[in-house]
Write a structure and sequence with these properties.
Order of helices and strands: HHHHHHHHHHHHEEEEEEEEEEHEEEE
CATH architecture of the largest domain: Sandwich
CATH superfamily of the largest domain: Galactose-binding domain-like
Distance between the termini: 41 Å
Strand content: 25-35%
Radius of gyration: 27 Å
CATH class of the largest domain: Mainly Beta
Number of strands: 14
Structural class: alpha+beta
Length: 349
């Protein structure tokens, strides 16, 4: 079998076997052998596999008997491989792939749970991120602990790994943000049971909102699209928050990456308010030159509300600060009752 034939075989294995998850792993078994060792495998296996792959793609829906035969062949190949070799193969996949493998095959449990695999899914700078000490029984255990988020940077940030990919996300607490007039009587700082942080910030009475967060590009996962979201709640006695939409932006240095507008209080869910104050709200929105409806807040599974600040991309060589801001400085109306937990920076799905 020549190099070109092998390449075609490998490509077709990926294409066809991807329709059946357990079989898709077959393609990984060819990688660690090298061409010489590959051809040392019994020729009959390749004869059957080639016949299977040359079957027209449209007929692969009805391949039950062949797929059973290939499952058996995969098991035979699996038993010929050293455990650390299988671990190296699995470390080139993703956490989601390995978790699926663990659910469908007991044969893979030991190599799939090895530290060699899960070390590859942890960020290279993980030991500079983690608080010390932190207890974990295995690297896999540490990964799943981090997927639930932990507090870092003296409790000013929450750090988590996306469970399907291992990419990093952060929540910058309100205490870690730059908030205009947050140190005077306009804002109050308090602890509430719903927050993951020690304190949240609440607007008592302010004419303007200026909330800004910064995070280093190097702290995030490279080659990843991120979204930034303001996390907040509205107190029962809130006022003035829906007078005019907030303006949001994301910047890297002097370069503007995204702009948006969003409302902190959704008047769609309060029809009487919209009826009595709709005309005034329309006039106020004209101040920000709003031609489209601003984004409304959405409710998260943890009970907090969020508005989308914007999206940005982290390249492999990016450095410097990413700035994320939410402002409302054109309404000139007193407002209060906004409870800010922080800004969530997470990979886009």
């Amino acid at each position: 079998m020549g190099e070109r034939a092998f390449a075609l075989l490998f490509a077709n294995v990926h294409l066809i076997l991807s329709r059946n998850f357990p079989l898709a792993l077959l393609s990984f078994f060819f990688l660690p052998f090298g061409m010489g060792n590959l051809f040392a495998l019994p020729p009959l296996k390749f004869l059957h596999l080639t016949l299977y792959i040359n079957t027209p793609y449209s007929s692969t829906i009805n391949y039950t008997a062949q797929s059973i035969w290939l499952d058996i062949e995969m098991a035979c190949l699996w038993r010929q491989l050293p455990e650390d070799c299988v671990s190296r193969i699995l470390s080139g996949t993703s956490p989601a792939d390995v978790c699926r493998i663990l659910t469908v095959s007991k044969e893979f449990r030991h190599p799939a749970e090895s530290n060699l695999v899960w070390n590859q899914f942890l960020p290279s700078d993980i030991h500079t991120i983690l608080p010390s000490p932190i207890n974990f029984s295995s690297t896999k255990n540490l990964f799943f602990l981090l997927s639930q988020s932990i507090l870092v940077d003296d409790g000013k940030k929450a750090f988590a790994l996306e469970i399907s990919t291992g990419r990093k996300s952060y929540i910058l607490s309100a205490a870690d943000l730059s908030i205009f007039h947050s140190n005077n009587n306009n804002w109050t700082w308090k602890s509430i049971p719903e927050s993951r942080f020690d304190k949240v910030g609440e607007v008592k009475e302010a004419e303007r909102l200026e909330i800004e967060g910064k995070i280093r590009s190097e702290a995030l996962s490279p080659e990843t699209n991120y979204g930034a979201y303001l996390l907040f709640k509205i107190s029962e006695d809130a006022y003035g928050l829906n007078s005019i939409p907030c303006e949001t932006f994301i910047a890297s240095g002097d370069r503007l990456l995204a702009t948006n507008t969003a409302t902190l209080d959704d008047t769609i869910n309060r029809p009487l308010h919209a009826l009595f104050y709709g005309n005034r709200l329309h006039k106020m929105k004209e101040r920000v030159g709003l031609n489209t409806a601003p984004a409304a807040p959405s409710k998260r599974q943890d009970g907090w509300l969020e508005i989308h600040i914007g999206d940005f991309f982290i390249g492999a060589a990016d450095t410097g600060n990413i700035t994320m801001a939410v402002t409302e400085i054109k309404g000139h109306q007193l407002k209060g009752g906004l409870i800010v937990e922080g800004i969530h920076v997470r990979p886009n799905t």
